[in-house]
Task: structure prediction
Amino acid sequence: MGGMSEPPLVTYEVDDRIAVITLDSPANRNALSRPLVAELTAALDSCAADDRLHGVLLRSSQPVFCAGADLREAATVDMRVSAAGIVALQRAIVACPVPVVIRLDGPVRAGGLGLVASADIVVCRDEVTFALTEVRLGLAAASISIALKHRLTARAASDWFLTGRQFSADEALTGGLVTQLASAQSMDAQVAAVLADLRSGIRQGLVQAKALLTGELLATFDEQGAAMAELSGRLFHSTAAQSAMAAALRAR
Result:
């Protein structure tokens, strides 16, 4: 039937002062396509405007939390614009007045790590894996580097940025990327406990405490965000990266 709209890639609901945002883009494993980035940014804008909230929970309905950039889209659009959108999305997570909690039940790759690093609290299944795969495509983790460099230990950043290797949830905890680990059996209870703690706070205190913690990171986004988006876009459009991305898509 004509006129039917596409299903949303991001859903939003409020549960007792917690906004629950769910990534739901199964066709590309929650890759950071322009539509998903736009919908997620809009959801965060809604959170910022709602003075009833004590927190935000960002999660995925899919086995993969986020697969990074949408490589098919990257072959057809101006990636400078897309990278600027990803930078703005991370900044929106950091600038959200109330704490943003991420629940990780599945793998995170490349650009998805920028979302994780931008959040305030990350509860991660102990079997989740991560990888900054950009270098293996002739890229660099430029548009997500601001938040990652703020969170990670220097040695972890060097390892993960330069090798592109897969690393474990235990390594992510030690390196500063995630806050706590949970088993499959304890995940629901641990996330619920974090949200209960946020509900127990007084909103004014939560807002002011978060502002104390995020001021430096927000300033760095404002100072470096445009340059990092430009670098990311330029690398995406390079001959080396375009060839590597085409080969990766053929191998799927």
Summary: The first strand starts at residue 10 and ends at 15. The radius of gyration is 17 Å. The mean pLDDT is 96.
